[in-house]
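Hi U.,

Before I forget, here's the chain from the pilot set. I'm dumping it here mostly so it's searchable later in email.
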Amino acid sequence: MPEVYAHSWNYSDDTFATAVTRGAGFGYNGIEVYGGHFPDAFDPVGGLEELCAVGERGGLPVMVAPLIVDLLTVADGEVAARTEAAVGLVTAAGRLGIPALNAMIGWLPPDAAGRDGSALATEGHFERAIKLCGELAQAAARAGVQITLETHMQTIHDVAASTLRIVEAVDSPHLRVNIDAGNMYSVAHAEPAEEALDQLREHVTYAHLKNCREINGQFDYHWSLAGGDLDYRRLVGSLAAGGFAGPYCIEYSGSGDRDHATRADLEYLHGLFADLGIG
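Structure:
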């Protein structure tokens, strides 16, 4: 059966230790760290060491660390320092035995016309993104880890086409894709989920799962995997049919009873694996 990680974002208003305890108790195989759980934003390496220790004590290893590097809109003079810090975190992940880092490399927030993300990206933005990802991929190769670009709203890699452009330009086995169909669902210029998967399939090594509903033009993420507009029976089946064997990560993005959502979504996903003969 594919491995399934909990995302500590599920407990974004609680402690990382709580996320670890709940995830271990519910039967997850590991955890991805939400950046807001770092104890000191100015010491990411020290924070990652501390979070790994919490995971080890709680019986749920840190399998994915966040790599959030906003280089697209900063001044040229800040690029080198930010790149160096990102490379340092990649190096630390390798030393700590964390196999992967999930990356967001630059935000392009909405303009006056409501366009955002890759819809606003210039050639200069893509050149900077590709250069950064190339340096990060080289660092990942040295550290023995893998970096995934998450398809995330309001980033340059928000849709399949822009993500593919960056990954193919870098052309490294250490830079791959985390497909998040739930994120793309609320991106106006995104491809439909199955079309995006077809474009990215050979590069996908990680998959975030969350669901969403469009209600009167607004996107509501307070839904279980089984309850939103996205049909995860079809999407998980399509991923598996294309050879993807995990890991998956459940990232509940609503409110309410986080324990129920975190446990119920895992039970649903395990049920899908059984129904679809994925094992």
